[in-house]
């Protein structure tokens, strides 16, 4: 689309139940309206060190935290450039894991796919088998924790445990649509890099990417010699150690919003947030079982994105449109080839069972369930 469509001042606000961005609280939006300050001022050091250290505390990690202007996509590139010389194993089970593989190919790496049908989860024993049977060395396994296209939550903890037995194979995890809403003990499971975007389960505005980096991953980049410039672990972490700031001018207003929301996340706690998301998942799961069916393989349903199989053959696009018109709520169709066969509900961030029930009531009304 090349023609300008003038942005207006009169859009209706829609409550977001899409797989991200999700709802952002008003006080978090308001936090962005502080007057501008310089990214090399002491005030910036206060802001950046606060959000980095609060994030470590929330996630319960001793690893380093990097927060950069950009989105999770940045760390598909950065993890590949920082950790991979040649061969990377990518278990693919949906659109986002496939895109991680595409990014690595575009960066000139040799990608080995461990392919699953959409809806299936990656199995740790298959990853072990792929490593054991390979006649090349994999520098990295690139996994996706929460396949937002299929609503599958992959067992990254168990995969990490397998990979701990292969210390020269680094484990990078795209947790873009789950971190903050689905508990993961990062340090316990040998995860070398795990990254997220702020607009998903963190419930912040879009515009920042967060990556938790192990000492091993940092050392690997140093030993490897070349890396991403913008998302280089060494550049970003050394800059933090020396100055408590980012290497280039960040989106300061979004960091102000981050600060506000991360305090709320700290107050709630990683475990309690996980529990709230689990309750939402169970609620949506029961609702789907009553009216439709869950799309993912049983036992691997995501805590943040429900992918529901359209077993009744409703007109998904029309239902989305009508729910939006009548209730000012937005949910999503299925992704790519499973567009009409499924639909998706993002139950992440600050949503609760009660707020998700408002959406399912609206769908029941519109689709006459
Ligand atoms: C699992 C997953 N990975 C990566 C991305 C890309 O994230 P971003 O658009 O924030 O770069 C998304 C976006 O929906 C996602 O769901």
From TrEMBL:
Cofactor (UniProt): pyridoxal 5'-phosphate
Matches recorded under PROSITE patterns: AA_TRANSFER_CLASS_5
Pfam families: Aminotran_5 (PF00266)
Gene Ontology biological-process annotations: glycine biosynthetic process, by transamination of glyoxylate
Domain of life of the source: Archaea
Ranges of residues in domain Aminotransferase class V: 33-286
Record carries keyword Transferase: yes
MF GO annotations: alanine-glyoxylate transaminase activity; L-serine-pyruvate transaminase activity
InterPro entries, sorted: Aminotrans_V_dom (IPR000192), Aminotrans_V_PyrdxlP_BS (IPR020578), PyrdxlP-dep_Trfase (IPR015424), PyrdxlP-dep_Trfase_major (IPR015421), PyrdxlP-dep_Trfase_small (IPR015422), SP_NH2Trfase/AEP_transaminase (IPR024169)
Record key words, sorted: Aminotransferase, Pyridoxal phosphate, Transferase
Family, as annotated: Belongs to the class-V pyridoxal-phosphate-dependent aminotransferase family.
PANTHER family, sorted: ALANINE--GLYOXYLATE AMINOTRANSFERASE, AMINOTRANSFERASE CLASS V
Name of the protein in question: Aminotransferase class V
Source organism: Halorubrum hochstenium ATCC 700873
